[in-house]
Design brief:
With 189 residues, the chain is mainly alpha-helical. 57% of the residues lie in helices and 4% in strands.
């Protein structure tokens, strides 16, 4: 799998969904307990900026981590803020040799290629959350298959905790991929 190309697919699909989330849709609850659609877009926007900065500079200053993970990353233009952050992340991960570089994120030091896989899983999952919250659908089911595969390789019992990844929920093996991805991420369907 070309992980940079997969990230582009995730960004493209997520951008379509964020563009479709305007007005009162931003206030809708999402499958992420306690989060509105705006909260979710804020999270992925801060995350995209944080992942980009780690790929560019190797790490993110502590004072910026707090902003990216809990501050307002959207201002008055959620769609524009997401597009800016996503473009920066794409540019950062397209740099020659970046995937072998060691980066430090709030959850540890790792090769940037591993960080990229985490970003693919996280943003694809949240794109699915956003689609559910706003009555949209994720059109790129192949992207969701890859995201679930990445998640199954990376998310072990040590990462299962409320507010991070709840316990995987039961779901039929032949359920739609969006349901299987969300159930794996601990969403109650």
């Amino acid at each position: 799998m070309d992980s940079v190309a997969m990230l582009q697919r995730v960004v493209d699909e997520t951008t379509r969904l964020v563009d479709g989330t305007t007005g009162e849709l931003l206030d809708r609850p999402t499958p992420c307990e306690g989060w509105t659609a705006r909260d979710l877009v804020n999270h992925i926007t801060g995350g995209a900026t944080m992942f980009a900065m780690s790929a560019e500079q190797g790490s993110v200053p502590d004072e910026l981590v707090a902003q990216f993970m809990g501050g307002d990353n959207l201002g008055g233009d959620p769609q524009g803020a997401w597009k800016t952050a996503a473009a920066r992340a794409m540019a950062a991960f397209e740099q020659p040799g970046v995937l072998e570089k060691l980066v430090t994120l709030p959850f540890g030091e790792m090769p940037a290629g591993v960080a990229l896989s985490i970003a693919i899983f996280d943003v694809a999952t949240h794109a699915t959350d956003l689609a559910r919250a706003t009555g949209q659908t994720v059109g790129d089911t192949g992207m969701l298959e890859v995201a679930l595969e990445i998640g199954q390789q990376m998310i072990g019992p040590e990462l299962r905790a409320p507010g991070v990844f709840d316990e995987a929920q039961p779901v039929a093996t032949d359920a739609p991929i969006a349901d299987r991805l969300l159930a794996f991420a601990g969403r109650r369907l």
